[in-house]
Each structure stands twice: as structure tokens, then as C-alpha cells.
Design a protein that fits this description.
This is ATP-binding cassette domain-containing protein. The chain is of the alpha/beta class. The chain is 27% helix and 23% strand.
Length: 336
């Protein structure tokens, strides 16, 4: 497919200030060398436990703060090094839907004004009549009644507010939408409706999505590809079927073991990881997962594994794949 977003060796290190003079005493290595791409019309899900850096990746590609290093290419144009002024018109191309539909809508603006703002800011309508027409069309797209545009955010339920947030993102006519835990705060039944809406919109509009989520059951239901993050790094990337069917990283295997299998009667063997996620201030040497990995061996403690393709487009960063297949525990599991 045609690449719409390409991220190369992205790093975001937040300085820790301390001492009398407020000098930098260390860094939080929140994102520490992350590369991925998204094709036109494709959903890439970024998954991992809270604190792994996935939201920071989302904010970095949205350029909500400067990067420490790395490249972000949107529609064949580098955006990581642009000034705020140069970036402003390009922001139309990448929009965001955040987790909390309660705090992300201005309570003092009617829905009409919330949706009209990006249309006006990006000069997408010739006059106010056209603004109104576009606002109405956006309400249709997110399946809300047109006359609800006169209401205030507090008059809507959580799910309806998230529809308004989606409409606001669509108002800019983006090519890419970043959804950061966009359904995590919603009730189970509402979750499914919003996920289905996002899927419908994606195929209708040819949108690309970066779907940031800790909820693998939802991801399994709707994504095209998945990237798994652990402690500031991507440890595995694959298409949905390949990742859920035959994970090639022990961390992914453990995460998946906690997800209900969509086949009646089938179970996955539950893998409970020992210990806590180490601090991103002092990540472990070698493989960052070695302190919790059930298969860790000597090499893992000293040498960092590279993210490597198995030849089918399935990438994983794990030394086990240097072993003969018969001695690789990841490849010798009974299927669920
Ligand atoms: Fe586990 Fe070693 Fe693979 Fe890291 S490289 S995931 S510690 S087996
Ligand atoms: Mg987050």
C-alpha cells in the first residue's frame, strides 16, 4: 500500500529537573527509538501496558511537543522539524480523538461551533451557509441528528460526546486519525458502537488510523496491523492474524494469554508475568524485557535484540529467533 505516515527512530526523552539550580539530573526514556509506518486507509494499533510510551508516540506524531530525535513523514513531507507556523496548515491532515469525551469538548461551546471551528480555521468553506452544510453532513456521518447541533456538550451521553469528538476530527478532512484510548472510558455496549462507527468511517473515507489501546480484545476485532510496545520500544509488528495467531515475542505472547479467545470452548494458556514494568528512567540493559521474560537467557541481559522480519513481514525483537526452530519455545506451542 501507499504510505501515509512514516515514523523513523522516534525518541522522546523527558528531562528530570532536580537540585538547587534545577539542572537536568536524568531522563524519562518514554519513547526510545520507535519506527513504523501506516498505509493509506489502514489501521495500525499501538498496544502495550500503560506507561509503555504509546500515548507519547501519538502525541509526538501529532507534534504536540518537539521530538528528542527521529523523523515523522506525513504525506511524503517531513513534519518533525517544521516550525509552528509552517506546521499549522498541515495539522489538517492528522487529527486526534482522545480518551475522555468529557474534558475534550469545550463546555461553553454549542456543538455547531465546536464543529465549525476547524472548518473555518482550515478554510474549508467559502461562506457560513457552507459551514452549516458541512456541520450537518458531519452529524450525519457520526449518526447524530442534525438538530442536535444547537445543544451543549453536557446534554450528551459519553458515547454521543465521543461521536462529536470524531465529527470534530473529521471536520478537518484528515488523512490520518490518531485514536488515543478513544473507547476505553466508554461502557461496553457503547464501546462496540463507537468502534463500529470508526470502522465504517474508515472504509467510507479511506482514513488511516493509529489506534492506541491497551484493550487487545477490541484491537483483535478491528485492526489491520498491530505494533506492540514495551518500555519505550516496539517489540513486535505484524498483521492482525499473524500477531494474534502466532506471536513472535514473549511479551506479546503474555499479553495475548489474557485475552479471551473468540472461538467457543477454546482457551489460551494464561501466562502471568513476574515483577513490575521497570522504570523508564533506568531501563534494563540488553533486552528491556529480560527482567520479566520467562525465556530469558544470558545473551538477553547484555545484548539488545534488533526488530527483525521473519521474511513474511512479521517483525519481532527477540534473540530466541536466532535458534533453530525446534529449540525456539515461541514456535513450539500447541494452537489454542
Ligand atoms: Fe525474552 Fe531474551 Fe527474547 Fe528478550 S530477547 S524477549 S529476554 S528471550
Ligand atoms: Mg496512555
Amino acid at each position: 500500500g501507499e504510505r501515509i505516515l512514516e515514523v523513523t527512530d522516534l525518541k522522546k526523552h523527558f528531562p528530570i529537573r532536580g537540585g538547587l539550580l534545577g539542572s537536568t539530573v536524568g531522563y524519562v526514556y518514554a519513547v526510545d527509538g520507535v519506527s513504523f509506518h501506516i498505509n493509506k486507509g489502514e489501521t495500525l494499533s499501538l498496544v502495550g501496558e500503560s506507561g509503555c510510551g504509546k500515548s507519547t508516540v501519538g502525541k509526538a506524531v501529532l507534534r504536540l511537543f518537539p521530538l528528542t530525535s527521529g523523523q515523522v513523514v506525513l504525506n511524503n513531507r517531513r513534519i518533525d522539524d517544521l516550525s509552528a507556523g509552517t506546521l499549522r496548515p498541515l495539522r489538517r491532515q492528522i487529527q486526534v480523538v482522545f480518551q475522555d469525551p468529557f474534558s475534550s469538548l469545550n463546555p461553553r461551546m454549542r456543538v455547531r461551533d465546536i464543529l465549525a471551528e476547524p472548518i473555518r480555521n482550515f478554510g474549508l468553506a467559502k461562506n457560513e451557509a457552507e459551514v452549516d452544510e458541512r456541520v450537518g453532513a458531519l452529524m450525519d456521518k457520526v449518526r447524530l441528528p442534525r438538530d442536535a447541533v444547537n445543544r451543549w456538550p453536557h446534554e450528551f451521553s459519553g458515547g454521543q460526546r465521543q461521536r462529536i469528538c470524531i465529527a470534530r476530527a473529521l471536520a478537518a478532512e484528515p488523512d490520518v486519525i490518531v485514536c488515543d484510548e478513544a473507547v476505553s472510558a466508554l461502557d461496553v455496549s457503547v464501546k462496540a458502537q463507537i468502534v463500529n462507527l470508526l470502522q465504517d468511517l474508515q472504509s467510507e473515507l479511506g482514513l488511516a488510523m493509529l489506534f492506541i489501546s491497551h484493550d487487545l480484545a477490541i484491537v483483535e476485532h478491528m485492526t489491520h496491523r498491530v505494533a506492540v510496545m514495551y518500555l519505550g520500544k516496539i517489540v513486535e509488528v505484524a498483521d492482525r492474524k499473524s500477531l494474534f495467531g502466532s506471536p513472535r515475542h514473549p511479551y506479546t505472547e503474555a499479553l495475548l494469554s489474557a485475552v479471551p479467545v473468540p472461538v467457543p470452548g477454546a482457551v489460551r494458556e494464561r501466562i502471568v508475568l513476574q515483577g513490575d514494568v521497570p522504570s523508564p528512567i533506568k531501563p534494563p540493559k540488553g533486552c528491556r524485557f529480560h527482567t520479566r521474560c520467562p525465556y530469558a537467557f544470558d545473551r538477553c541481559r547484555s545484548e539488545e535484540p534488533a526488530l527483525r522480519d521473519d521474511g513474511t513481514g512479521h517483525l519481532a525483537a527477540c534473540h530466541l529467533h536466532d535458534r533453530p526452530a525446534a529449540e525456539n519455545p515461541l514456535l513450539n506451542k500447541a494452537p489454542p
